């Protein structure tokens, strides 16, 4: 299987995982749903490292950088879960997925010099996210849609998710270059899991971290899907096909939106669909340009 197909399968797995997050987040609350996801991810990625007999070069770890990347990687999906709790998939997913556009101006602070195509792709992506925010339809759940504040909460949470995804990407790249992609991801998941577990235990006690048996099948599918998507994407990013893999993998947002449209009957206006297309196009271009580096 070539890099483009690996990237496409990763997009499918990510999209399904994000779609399931809408149900687990609303059923358990975003923190507990996130705890379950990270626990499953830790187990799968840890098993992969053991199976591949991969070691972690502990002596090369920059603890501060690792902590910043791990905390950002914890907050980002947590904010996405909150966004999916307060608004429809067609609103939350495209705005959060626009995070590569934030990497372009942020990279200036790190000494990079983005060129014109990257700036244009960033503008298209941000413009698409704004169009989505203004034109996405109401949540199909009338209880959620009846509170007008929920839409604002969903947008704010999605923007926060995208911002922290950008931080995790920028800082995590240095960690991955030092430790390796899977090692960095496992450490980040482990730190995020233990941090969130400690917070929930302090705030809510033992009952606050328990997940009902009925919800575990969804948590398992979601966790397996997300961990598998990362592993496939890392495999796809090896060699000459990295740029194309980044383009196909960026389709995860479209997968999530289409699942919401098909199964939840979310209505998508022409204006909203145009915004989603702009976000996807901009992110795909940024992914391609980034994959060429």
Automatic annotation (TrEMBL):
Key word Plastid present: no
Domain EamA: 4-133, 153-286
Keyword entries, A-Z: Membrane, Transmembrane, Transmembrane helix
PANTHER family: ACYL-MALONYL CONDENSING ENZYME-RELATED (PTHR22911), SOLUTE CARRIER FAMILY 35 MEMBER G2-RELATED (PTHR22911:SF137)
Superkingdom as given in the UniProt entry: Bacteria
UniProt keyword Membrane present: yes
Designated name of the protein: EamA domain-containing protein
One GO cellular component term noted in the UniProt record for this chain: membrane
Listed InterPro entries: EamA_dom, EmrE-like
Membrane-spanning parts: 33-51, 63-84, 116-133, 154-172, 184-202, 209-236, 242-263, 270-290
A Pfam family that the UniProt record links to this protein: EamA
